[in-house]
Specification:
This protein is an alpha/beta fold. It is 34% helix and 28% strand. The protein is built from 11 helices and 13 strands. Bound molecules: adenosine-5'-diphosphate (ADP) and magnesium ion.
C-alpha cells in the first residue's frame, strides 16, 4: 500500500449567487439561485512513503481543497482516499498524530503568547514525553535558528520567523506525512531560502512523505522531482517536474524604468511586451537573449531601474494546461 492513495476524489461546493434588483429578488423566491463549484473532480494519485511531491496549479485549481480532504477538514462529495491506511475524514485520533498540515495563510500558534507556550500546549495534546519533547524542540529550534525568539509574543515576529515557528509546531509530534500549503507565500527571499533548506534537510533525514504546494518554482525545483498538476479540479499532469521546468525556464521577465519618460519603439524586437506604462515596461524575453537584450537596451537608452526575474509559476502552469488539446511530454493521467 502507498502512503497516500487517492481514488476518484470529488468535492463540490454549492455557491449561492446574488441577484440584483427587485424583480430579481422576487424571482429569487421561486428559483433557487446557486451554482455548483466542482473544486476537486475525480482526482486520483498515489504517493509512496518518503516521497516529496509538488502539487501545482493555478489559483482556484483545487489544491487547498485536496489538502483539506487529506487532512480530514473537509468531507468528499464522492470518492475515496487513505493516508497511512486511515480515511482522513473519519478523523481518528491515531491519524491526527501521524500528519500535519501547514498553511501559509492560517496560524495554529497563539498570537499573543510566545511560541514556546504554544509548543507546550502541543506537548500536552500529543502527550510527548518530556525528554523527547526537549530533544525535538532543541533540534528544530537549532535547524530553524529561532532560539532567541522563543520567548517573544508571536505577533511581534516577522512573517518569516512566524512561518518557522509554524513548522516547529507542525513537526514536534514527528508526523510521518506533511502537507505544506504555500509555506513560503509572502516571505522575503532569505526566509524563503531558509524554509526551503530546512524542508530539504528534514525530509531527507526523516524520510517523511510530503505534498507541497507553492507559487515559487525555486521551492519546487529545490525540493521535488515529481509534480502533480491540477487544473479546474482535475489532474492534468503527473510525472517528472523536469518536463515542466523546461518549459518554465525558456523565458525571463525584464522590468525596466526609462528616465526619458519615453519608451523606445525597438523593444518589441527582443520579446513580448507584457505591460507598458510610462516610464515602466515589462518584457518577456527568451532566456538566452537576456544579456544581449540588456546590453543593447542599456547602450541605447537611459534607464533608471531594472530587474530580471522568473515568470510566476502559476502563469506558466496555466498556460501549459489551459488548452485542452495540449499535452505535456510525459503527461496524462497516471
Ligand atoms: N468553502 C468553499 N465554498 C465555496 N467554494 C469554495 C470553497 N473552498 C474552495 N472553493 C472553490 O473551489 C475551487 C478550488 O479552490 P481551492 O481548493 O482553494 O484552490 P487552490 O488552492 O488551488 O487555489 C475554487 O473555485 C474555490 O473558489
Ligand atoms: Mg490554495
Amino acid at each position: 500500500m502507498s502512503a497516500i492513495e487517492v481514488h476518484d476524489l470529488c468535492r463540490q461546493y454549492r455557491v449561492y449567487r446574488k441577484r440584483e434588483g427587485v424583480l430579481a429578488s422576487i424571482g429569487g423566491l421561486f428559483r433557487r439561485e446557486y451554482e455548483i463549484v466542482r473544486a476537486v473532480r475525480n482526482v486520483s494519485f498515489r504517493i509512496e512513503e518518503g516521497e516529496m511531491v509538488a502539487f501545482l496549479g493555478p489559483n482556484g485549481a483545487g489544491k487547498t481543497t485536496t489538502l483539506k480532504l487529506l487532512s480530514g477538514l473537509v468531507v468528499p462529495t464522492s470518492g475515496h482516499a487513505t493516508v497511512l491506511g486511515y480515511v482522513p475524514w473519519q478523523r481518528k485520533d491515531a491519524y491526527r498524530r501521524r500528519f500535519s498540515l501547514v498553511t501559509g495563510q492560517k496560524e495554529q500558534l497563539w498570537w499573543d503568547l510566545p511560541a514556546q507556550e504554544s509548543f507546550r500546549l502541543h506537548r500536552e495534546i500529543y502527550r510527548i514525553p518530556d525528554a523527547e519533547y526537549r530533544r525535538r524542540l532543541d533540534e528544530l529550534t537549532d535547524l530553524l535558528e529561532v532560539g532567541r525568539l522563543m520567548a517573544r509574543p508571536v505577533r511581534e515576529l516577522s512573517l518569516g520567523e512566524r512561518m518557522r515557528m509554524e513548522l516547529i509546531a507542525a513537526l514536534l509530534h514527528r508526523p510521518d506525512v506533511l502537507f505544506l500549503d504555500e509555506p513560503t507565500i509572502g516571505l522575503d527571499v532569505v526566509s524563503q531560502r531558509r524554509v526551503q533548506e530546512f524542508l530539504r534537510y528534514y525530509q531527507r533525514e526523516q524520510r517523511i512523505t510530503v505534498i507541497l504546494t507553492s507559487h515559487y518554482m525555486k521551492d519546487v525545483e529545490a525540493l521535488c522531482e515529481r509534480a502533480i498538476v491540477i487544473n479546474r479540479g482535475q489532474v492534468v499532469h503527473d510525472g517528472q517536474l523536469a518536463a515542466i521546468v523546461d518549459r518554465f525556464s525558456q523565458h525571463k521577465i525584464i522590468d525596466l524604468q526609462f528616465s526619458d519618460g519615453e519608451i523606445p519603439d525597438s523593444l518589441s524586437r527582443y520579446g513580448q511586451i507584457l505591460e507598458s506604462r510610462l516610464p515602466r515596461v515589462r518584457l518577456q524575453v527568451p532566456r538566452n537573449m537576456v544579456s544581449t537584450c540588456l546590453a543593447e537596451i542599456l547602450g541605447e537608452n537611459s534607464v533608471d531601474d531594472l530587474s530580471v526575474s522568473e515568470r510566476p509559476l502559476e502563469e506558466v502552469i496555466a498556460e501549459l494546461f489551459s488548452q485542452p488539446d495540449e499535452t505535456c511530454s510525459d503527461g496524462g493521467d497516471p
